[in-house]
Each structure stands twice: as C-alpha cells, then as structure tokens.
Automatic annotation (TrEMBL):
Descriptive protein name: 8205_t:CDS:1
Domain Methyltransferase: 120-212
Residue ranges of coiled coil: none
InterPro entries the UniProt entry points to: Methyltransf_25 (IPR041698), SAM-dependent_MTases_sf (IPR029063)
Region (Disordered): 1-55
Species of origin: Paraglomus occultum
Top-level taxon: Eukaryota
Lineage: Eukaryota, Fungi, Fungi incertae sedis, Mucoromycota, Glomeromycotina
Composition bias, Basic residues: 1-10
Biased composition (Low complexity): 32-53
Length: 343
C-alpha cells in the first residue's frame, strides 16, 4: 500500500493501471537496446505500437520467471518471507514490468556497472528486489536503497547492498555528487506536482555525480482500447487526484518538461512500452488487470469516491473490470533518462 503526501496529509492509496505506488523495485535481465514502442519484442511474443496482436499464454514464461525468481530469493534469504499479499504483489509487479521492457534500465550504464566500483541509488526501493538482483549481477558495485517503509531486507542481503529508512522530503542523507546512477520508478502516487519540481528532482540531481545518469520510470494512467464506462471512471479518478491531492497520474507530458528546466542536464531520452491488461494477454494480463482493480479499490478515500458512496464505487469498479475484459486494453509504461553534465 502506498502513501500519498499532500497538504500535510498522508493518505493510504495504491495503484491503478498496474502501477506500483510509492515503492518500487527492479531487477536485472537481458538488456535490449532502447527503442521505440514499435520495435519492441518480448520472448517469442511481441508487443508493438501497431495493431498487431499481443499474446501472452499461461505458459509463456512469465509465470515461470516469477516463480523461479521468488523461490531463488526466498531460498537465498534476500527477501522478507513471501507471506503478505502486498509484498507478493510488489514482487510480481517488478517481474511483470521487467518482462514488458526486457531489461531493468534503459540508461547506458551497462559498461560502467560491469567495470565495478560504481555507486547506485534506488529511491522508494520497497522490498528491494531491483537492488538485490542488480547487486548479484554487479558484485563490484555498491547499491543503496531507500524507502519510508522498511519492507527491504534488514540482515540477510548481499554485502554490496545497503537499505535505509529515509523520507526524501526530509532530504537525502548523502553528500553532493555521490552516486553514478540514480534510479526511481512507480512514485507518482507519492509525489504532488509541487513535490516533483521543488523537492524530488533537485534532490535526486544533487546527489548524482557529474557524468552520471538519472532514470525515472512511470506509467501513464491512460487506458487504450478502453470502453465508455472505463474512460468516464478513469477520467473522474484522474481529475479527483489533481483537484484533491495535487497529484498528476499522466506524467509523460510533464517529466520531460520538468527535466528540461535543469541546465546541468544533457542527453535527454524518453522511451515507452505497452503494458497489456486483461485475459486476452494471458497470465500477465490477468495479473495486470487484477492489480488495476486492487489499486482502484484502495483509492476510494483519496478521490473521495468520485462522488459515489462506497457501494456504488465498488460496483462501478466491477463493471469497469468487466468492460476491460471484453477489450484488448493496455497502458503505456515510460522511462526517462538524462545525464548530468561534467563541469
């Protein structure tokens, strides 16, 4: 469950559109070269920006990947016991979006990490799964994860990892120019529009070394191929989040502009991938739609029910999910990466 900060209040919320709220994790898998949505591929199946079919079968490898990785980390003792539904959901979201992207980051950091001695910071690390996987792959680099909730491993973990209970709004406990790579994803439910511009981005760039990369990953809560009821409900939720929380859930038109305001940055990049939801996309699509539903249900208080009582709100969500099942829907996952200039 995530936390929304606005106007001195904290609301428990989650995600909509398969997005994970305020925490995030990442993992390392075979990297593909950054490309446009029209050129992406996933295993033997394909997700493109064209009208071609997106097909995920139950045995397409996604479920196997998830179960193998969960078992691997549980056995190694790197994870909290996989017993709470939310932690389990966070881990599965991690593997799901790694699956959609085919890798864990788009910044050209592979060579730097392979050489070793690099310092990496992950903001809102959640259970720490992205750090745990990357730290296992790049054992000569040091990885630091921060989160306001201590879901991450406290004792049994790779020697090149560190997890800290930190709230970014209190400032990051690091010196200027500390990290070679700063990574953050799925934080849109945690930050107001003002937070992004006045606190978060300046603080992330402060601790980033000259020549280092900052990478952000967020999903737009825009459902493509949606039905009329889904569109109406989604737009009501988006507007309520803007009006009541000052939180923007369609960031693809904002983050590039915000980053462009920093003269210390160069090499601005933006890439996207389709993230399908619904049974038509197989097991991964079913999970994604279930995550959408879970998030929408838990946003009731944050959006004041969009004018509906609790029973009406939940009934509307059920109807929206039914409508989504009858369509080949998807949302877009976005990555933004920039380099800090060497002065």
């Amino acid at each position: 469950m995530g936390k929304v900060y606005s106007k001195g209040k904290v609301h428990s919320v989650s995600v909509m559109g398969g997005v994970q709220r305020l925490r995030r994790q990442r993992s390392r898998s075979p990297r593909d070269s950054p490309g446009s949505p029209s050129s992406q591929s996933f295993s033997s199946n394909s997700i493109t920006s064209t009208d071609s079919e997106i097909s995920f079968d139950e045995d397409d490898g996604f479920k196997t990947l998830v179960e193998q990785k969960k078992a691997q980390f549980a056995k190694a003792g790197y994870m909290f016991p996989i017993c709470e539904k939310e932690i389990d959901r966070l881990q599965t979201l991690h593997y799901m979006f790694r699956y959609f992207w085919g890798n864990n980051f788009s910044s050209p950091m592979e060579g730097v990490l392979a050489k070793g001695n690099a310092k990496i910071l992950d903001i809102g690390c959640g259970p720490g799964i992205w750090i745990l996987e990357c730290a296992t792959t790049y054992q000569s680099c040091s990885f630091t994860g921060i989160d306001i909730a201590a879901l991450y491993p406290s004792e049994i973990k790779p020697r090149n990892t560190e997890f800290l209970n930190v709230n970014i709004f209190d400032g990051l406990p690091f010196e200027d120019n500390t990290f070679d790579f700063v990574h953050q994803r799925f934080m849109m439910f945690a930050y107001t529009i003002d937070n992004w511009q006045e606190k978060v981005l300046p603080e992330l760039l402060r601790v980033l070394k000259p020549g280092g990369y900052l990478e952000l990953m967020e999903n737009d809560i825009v459902w493509y191929e949606e039905g009329p009821l889904s569109r109406k409900f989604r737009e009501q939720v988006l507007q309520a989040m803007r009006d009541l929380q000052n939180i923007e859930l369609v960031l693809s038109s904002h983050i590039p502009e915000w980053l462009s305001r920093f003269p210390c940055l160069s090499q601005h990049h933006h890439d996207s991938r389709k993230a399908p939801f619904g049974s038509w996309a197989g097991g991964v699509g079913k999970f994604h739609l279930t995550s959408n539903k879970w998030g929408a249900v838990h946003m009731y208080d944050a959006v004041d029910g969009v004018g509906l009582n609790k029973e009406e709100y939940l009934d509307t969500i059920e109807k929206v999910m039914e409508e989504c099942e009858g369509r080949k829907g998807y949302l877009m996952s976005h990555r933004y990466w920039v380099r800090k200039k060497i002065e």
